[in-house]
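Here's what a typical entry looks like (LAS1-like protein):
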Amino acid sequence: MALFTKSDGFRRVPWFSLTEWHQAYKNIYSNNTAEQTEGYKTLLIWKARMPKLPVGVECTLSLIQVCLRDREWVPKINSGEMPMYYENDLCLMYSTTIMRFLNQISNIGHTKQTSLFQIAKQLRIPEWIVNLRHDAAHSHELPAIGLLRMAANMLLTWLHDEYWAAEGQAFEEQLTKESEIIETEDVESQTLIDLVELWMAIGLYIEAGYTSVSDLPDNQLQDTLNELMIQTKKLQDVSLDLCSKISTFLNRKNVTFDKKQILINFLINSIVFLPTSESSKLFTKYSISIDEYTAETQLPLAMIKFWQDFIHMLHEKKMLELLTLKLLEFVNSLNEDNHRRLHAALWINSITQGLIKLEIGQRNAQSLEHSYDEKNKRMTPKLMKRKLREKIHNENPELDNALCFNIMEDIPPMFMDVNFVRDIAFNPNELTIKFLGPLLDLVTPRMEEKNKQSLLQLVCIYTENNIISNDKKSKDDTIYTINDVVAAGNGQLSEDNCHDNEELDKIVELADTKIRNNSWELPSSNYDWNICAFGVLPWQIDSIESLHATNISPRLRCPDAVTNIVPGYVDSKHLSSSSQVDWEKVLRKKQRTKRKKQKGDADVMMNRAMEIVKRKKM
């Protein structure tokens, strides 16, 4: 990137956005005094934001400052409003600016112990400007004002070609590269999603009664399995193989995107994981209404068995906490489908019950190992598993159909955090009661059963899950505001209520929406402020689309009577859109290779599997 010292990682810049940078660029080279003044003000703002500006911006600021001052003073000097010796001040300002310019660019790249003439030749700066700098620094007289103006305009032209135009092109290339990186990440993330969708499709075919690959009605799915080098014939083995491939992909270290986040987001958006009322037919024989299904406290057994291996893998990959947090967020989102929200709540319940089962299993495993050690008997893993299953069945039969986790894995700390469960209990909704009980059984320190039941009953009352029998209106009436109270009382309010209403009116008057400060104004429309980065307003756009081509059209000029040069006005014919300097050699830049994007059809095959399962269930 021309005239900009590179460094690894992020880099602080003084401009607020690419739009602001481009507007300053456009103003500086507009050949219009008013617009150039605006551009100069913008550069001063950048200087205030970050005193150490990029060399190209710093040099432009100095040159445009003296050019604007020249155009302001010369008419006044010619008319006698200012004394003639102000022209000498202008010469001194020009000379200082040119010296600073050459000194600053001499530090670009690897130019130590190199003469200024050699540096200027390498950067395609005329030799006579270097001589002008030496005359200004060492001669008894300053160079003529005409020469200084000509040098300033040539340096502005040079800055346009080597910084502003080159930087704009670099911005565009960088944005293109970022989009290609995003595309590459999309390819890799799509590969992960394709594997999950293939696993889901195979599972759905197993649910529909298919047992072998050759029996599959989808030829494309068979071809895809062959491409993945999956040679097994049984669908159950294919499912395990795909799950293993997903696990291997999650172990990869050479990917730049967040694998876990992408996978969890995909699950949350999947109607196989969180079914709608229509897709719930995949795991139940009969379609039931949301009111009937709300009474359920467990997921369908077929659904738990379908996802058992996958949830087991998520536990081994330390992803249960992230999944549960996403499910909680989904449960608390009132904009989502109620049927899917209910499934999210039941998934939290199932995961928590599985962890309770794991905790009991770990506790019993220790006692079993101890008893066998005392008898000098050997406990095999298979025997351990059978003994634990029998013990849990006898002591906790309600956990027979709960998820099974690896007994060697730990329980995620979040589920035992009392602060985590407290936040859930303090902010309940109508679905919180579906999973709060099992969470209270996991939290440490353990809560007494009496206190637990009291808390659950309180949450039921708070969320209207347990209607008081003698309150006839509590079920039918919704009370949110004073108007709702009036409507519920047939328009009648007691004197106390009327008094409270008057007090409420006073409060409302103090909290109206009247704007009393000219610094604030209401937005013209509704915006999603949650997606805005700090310091960015919703309507501010910062993208390559805002980088329009520079349109330079010279306007009214006031040329110098002798040299016919307008300071700060450059001829658009001499401007170039590309750099004339070999910056690759100066800055020793490195190039990177580009990768191409591909796309799979796993989602299509999964949809076919869903349709076949639905037909089988009918």
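The mean pLDDT is 79.

More examples are in the samples folder.
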